[in-house]
Structures are given as structure tokens and as C-alpha cells.
Amino acid sequence: MAGTGLFSEILDGEVYKYYADGEWKTSSSGKSVAIINPSTRKTQYKVQACTQEEVNSVMELSKSAQKSWAKTPLWKRAELLHKAAAILKDNKVPIAESLVKEIAKPAKDSVTEVVRSGDLISYCAEEGVRILGEGKFLLSDSFPGNERTKYCLTSKIPLGVVLAIPPFNYPVNLAVSKIAPALIAGNSLVLKPPTQGAVSCLHMVHCFHLAGFPKGLISCITGKGSEIGDFLTMHPAVNCISFTGGDTGISISKKAGMIPLQMELGGKDACIVLEDADLDLVASNIIKGGFSYSGQRCTAVKVVLVMESVADELVEKVKAKVAKLTVGPPEDNSDITAVVSESSANFIEGLVMDAKEKGATFCQEYKREGNLIWPLLLDNVRPDMRIAWEEPFGPVLPVLRINSVEEGINHCNASNFGLQGCVFTKDINKAMLISDAMETGTVQINSAPARGPDHFPFQGLKDSGIGSQGVTNSINLMTKVKTTVINLPTPSYSMGDGLIARL
């Protein structure tokens, strides 16, 4: 069970502790933050409500620990990361249980997230040793007008303190996707987990603690965003912010100052379906892409743009598959579980009611019980409906019928988002042209949008984000280039005549 056995140290009565200076601590505030189980709508867990003074303390410890960590050999950093990955995977059951209870993720998917996270840490350790163990050697005479009198040596060095803020929907995986690159690169790491998902993150952090990382190098601060959110993101000790979430990231980017930012802020991922597409393949991918984890994924299919000539057939195929989706508690591995909060459910319902008022065709009856919303396919959606543009983050999927490929591309590009998209066709030439025309960070051909495998680049355009993720890109973003130039008194050329005479 969560908070027991190996993890009993992180729990104080009913309240989970925060992590700083290599210890599990209770906040001086004497307050806690409740975590509501989305399925029961009752308090499941409580975490510490940390203060700004505690944030200051953590930042000072992080700055100090980072100086020593930067001097730790790469192989030793990698060794500790591999150890943390093994401990994490060995304890997948209690961590997965936390995911089930605090974000209503189906049990089997929760286990998958933890195992995937362990694999990501190990891959990052190996990749970091490779790319950080190499530098560049440049010669001055490759630029016009210069003799070979300068040798330039470049290497990658850490930024300092990295602030990581993952989202509720993949709190463990999207935390380690920030933690592992930061640590292998020689940075210290301050983690501010989401409220929903905080306990899963605390369990994950304990795995790093058990692996033996130095005190102060990793910290995990819990609390109310209204009290410590801006204080964290604007803190002068922070040298880099990696954030995954919603439009809060836009606010962070405006306040953060001159530090590197890695932001993934959601999407309205379009699925463009041409006449020649394999409609059975399309229908399966719409179900997988639009309804897995109840649609609460940044890379979920958020709008289907299908050619009118095949729309009726496709909608019928999708309807048949929607009817087979199971709805219920995450403990039963239901396909559709409760969305994360009542406010999320209310927002989704608002989009549905707007579509209803404006004449969308409901392929199923709209049904909601608390935070549990049954899967819903909306046909004949028009551009004047909110659901055509806004991200529901729930099990509701709009279908817009189009009369040309250009119409589909124009709708995709008119969105303020630009995370991912997909196109289904048997004509690879058309697919490549459409991919080039879509203003998104990634385009999937004949498959639903997806983040991963985790070493693939992952980025968004426009309001979908800043920078690029993926193991290699994250390591590079969390480092800076250091250059040392050796100046020679006279030009030097390998095997050059007269070299000895000049010495």
C-alpha cells in the first residue's frame, strides 16, 4: 500500500511529508492540502502546505548541493540514476496505487507509467554519458582571414538549479522526464508536483532518496500554487524551468526572466482523414487517441476532420467502437474513468451544452455522474462551436466534415495550439505534403498522436509550448556551452614545414 513499508518514512500520520536536504519533513505552516479522489470525490490523501520560507531554504540547499554534484563524474551520476530506476520499477505497485487513487488512472496504465518512467531514467543515464562525454575542437583557420593560431575547446556544463513542474495526468513519467536529464547534466532539481498526483511524485522521489543521491540535490515542495507558485517560478535561484500543463505556463513564461524554459502547454490535435484512408485503422486510432485515459492527454485526438465522402462510414465505425468502451472505476481497469476534478467535468459539460444548443449531432446520449462522463462522439460540429477549438481534456470528441484537404489544414492551422496532429491516407506523397503544411510540432502519419517513445523529440508550436522535450533535447536544454580558447604565438599546422625552426 501507498505510504507503508518502504515508504512509511514519507508519511506523518495522515499527511505526507515534503522532501528537502535528504530528509522527509513536516511544514512549519502546520497546514495541509487535501487531494480529492476523482472517483469518490472524497479526500484521499493530504500533503504539506509548504511556506515561502521553506522554499527559500530549499533553494539555498539546492544551490550548494549543485556545486558539489557538478564535480561528480558522469559515470557516477549515471550509476545512481540506474539505481533509482531499478528501485522505482521494483516498487511499481504502491506507486501505481497512488495514481489510481489520486488521478483515477486505470490500474494497468498506472503500472505501465511507473515502469516506463524507470526505463526513461535508465535511457537518460546512458544518453547523458554519451553526449556529455563529448566536446568539440575547433580551429581558427576554418573561418576566412584567420591563421591557425587559436584552438577552441567546447563542452556542456550544467545550468544550476532546475525547477520541474509536471502535470496531473502523467505525474511520475513527466516528472522523471525532467529530473533525470537535469541530474545527469550536473544540475540540482526542485520538484513542485501537481496537487493531484503529488503523492505519486513523493513516492517516486523516495526512490531517488533510497538510491543515495547527495543531500539537497533533489527537493520536492508541495503546497498551494496560490501561495508558493509564483514564488517558486520567479525565485532568483532558479536557472531553468521545465513545465508541463495548461495555460499557466504562458503566465510563467512572462514572469520567469532570462532563463531557459521548456514548456508543453496542451493542444487541439487534429486528425485529418482522406478519402483513401483505411477507415478501420482510422476508427481504431480515434478510439485509442481520443478516449484513452478519458481523453485527458495533451496528445489526445481533439478534433476529427474527415472528408465528407467517407464521413458517414467512419462515424458509424467509431460509434460501434465507442459502444464497447467500459465505463467505471480505475481499479477495474475501465476504459473510461472519472475526470480529474469537478471543475474539469463542469468545463467539459459546458462545451457539450454549447454544441447541443448549436445543433451538433449526438452519436450517444450525454451522461454524467459526478466526475464520470460517458464517452461521447459529436458529429456535424461546426466552426462556430466551442468544442471545435477548445481543448476539452475529457472523453468528448468532435467530428467536423470537410470538403477539401485545404479546409482541414486551414482549420488545424487556425488553432492557437500546435502540439501534434495526424493524417490518414494511403498516399505517402500526400501525407508528407500535408505534414509539411500543418503548423504542429509533430505529425503522425497513419497513427494517433502520441508522446513517445520518450527519446523522440516532443515539442509544440504557438501556444502549445517553448523548446523541445525528449531525452537528448532535454539534456541539451539543461546545459550551456562553455568555451576555452588556446591562443598560439604563431600559426601551427600539423606536419607543416618549418615548424621546428619556429620553435
Automatic annotation (TrEMBL):
<dbReference type="InterPro" id="IPR016160">
    <property type="entry name" value="Ald_DH_CS_CYS"/>
</dbReference>
<dbReference type="InterPro" id="IPR051020">
    <property type="entry name" value="ALDH-related_metabolic_enz"/>
</dbReference>
<dbReference type="InterPro" id="IPR029510">
    <property type="entry name" value="Ald_DH_CS_GLU"/>
</dbReference>
<dbReference type="InterPro" id="IPR016161">
    <property type="entry name" value="Ald_DH/histidinol_DH"/>
</dbReference>
<keyword id="KW-0521">NADP</keyword>
<dbReference type="GO" id="GO:0008886">
    <property type="term" value="F:glyceraldehyde-3-phosphate dehydrogenase (NADP+) (non-phosphorylating) activity"/>
</dbReference>
<comment type="similarity">
    <text>Belongs to the aldehyde dehydrogenase family.</text>
</comment>
<feature type="domain" description="Aldehyde dehydrogenase">
    <location>
        <begin position="24"/>
        <end position="483"/>
    </location>
</feature>
<feature type="active site">
    <location>
        <position position="264"/>
    </location>
</feature>
<keyword id="KW-0963">Cytoplasm</keyword>
<protein>
    <recommendedName>
        <fullName>NADP-dependent glyceraldehyde-3-phosphate dehydrogenase</fullName>
        <ecNumber>1.2.1.9</ecNumber>
    </recommendedName>
</protein>
<dbReference type="InterPro" id="IPR016162">
    <property type="entry name" value="Ald_DH_N"/>
</dbReference>
<keyword id="KW-0560">Oxidoreductase</keyword>
<dbReference type="Pfam" id="PF00171">
    <property type="entry name" value="Aldedh"/>
</dbReference>
<dbReference type="InterPro" id="IPR015590">
    <property type="entry name" value="Aldehyde_DH_dom"/>
</dbReference>
<dbReference type="InterPro" id="IPR016163">
    <property type="entry name" value="Ald_DH_C"/>
</dbReference>
<dbReference type="GO" id="GO:0005737">
    <property type="term" value="C:cytoplasm"/>
</dbReference>
